[in-house]
Design a protein that fits this description.
Distance between the termini: 234 Å
Mean pLDDT: 74
Largest sheet: none
Order of helices and strands: HHHHHH
Number of strands: 0
Number of helices: 6
Length: 236
């Protein structure tokens, strides 16, 4: 049985000289008990619970990025690259749209002389002809664009030519409609002039009737007397 270390030491009453050895034995036992309680080891801490290892997280590598396309080399950077024909036509068309009427007439003459030199010249000539707003020039411009569409060698210019064909056909329809309206206006004006002429003729007749003098009435004369014949003679 372990001694109770928390209980206070027992005290014995004063004894006689004969009982002193017992007192010393009790004191010694108390001291030993106190020393044993002081040297008693502290209770051991509970053993740590084993930590459960988490399963490893699988990380997938990101997909590789697509290659970045390098910027294309422009004609300004590469002296050997040919310019885009569509861009060239658009640049020249922008210049034509800014010409005055006199300069436009000279440009049409110049392009007509060199019409067959390159594939884009018919489109430039069609652009210039469309600016005159004349039905004859619009029809000629439409024929030039359709001729470019019929040439397989001008495949790069076909998208632009189709767009120009659509615009020219729309312009031609509007010009034809305007021409019909103008003709109807001329016919109406001519009918109005004819009605005005007839109305003026009727008014002239009315004026001539009102200005003619009325015939004068002669006074009534006495009835004419019948001359008396020779006297009758009796028969024999």
């Amino acid at each position: 049985m372990q001694p109770d270390c928390n209980s206070p030491p027992r005290t014995t009453p004063s004894a006689t000289p004969a009982s002193r050895p017992l007192q010393w034995a009790a004191v010694l036992a108390t001291a030993l008990l106190t020393a044993a309680c002081a040297s008693r080891p502290a209770p051991a801490a509970p053993a740590p619970q084993p930590v459960q290892a988490l399963p490893p997280v699988r990380t997938e590598a990101p997909p590789p990025l697509p290659p970045v396309p390098l910027p294309s080399t422009t004609p300004a950077e590469s002296g050997n690259a040919a310019p885009d024909p569509v861009e060239q036509v658009l640049a020249d068309s922008d210049r034509i749209l800014r010409l005055s009427p006199a300069e436009l007439a000279r440009e049409i003459t110049r392009l007509s002389d060199v019409e067959e030199t390159s594939a884009d010249t018919p489109l430039l000539l069609a652009t210039a002809l469309a600016q005159t707003r004349q039905p004859v020039d619009t029809a000629r411009a439409l024929g030039l664009v359709q001729r470019v569409l019929a040439q397989p060698a001008s495949q790069a210019l076909h998208p632009l030519a189709r767009w120009m064909e659509s615009r020219l056909m729309q312009q031609r329809r509007m010009e034809e409609q305007l021409e019909r309206q103008t003709q109807q206006l001329r016919d109406a004006q001519r009918r109005i002039e004819q009605l005005n002429d007839r109305l003026e003729a009727v008014r002239a007749i009315e004026r001539s009737l009102t200005t003619r003098p009325a015939p004068s009435t002669a006074p009534a004369s006495a009835a004419p007397t019948v001359p008396a014949g020779p006297p009758r003679t009796g028969t024999p």
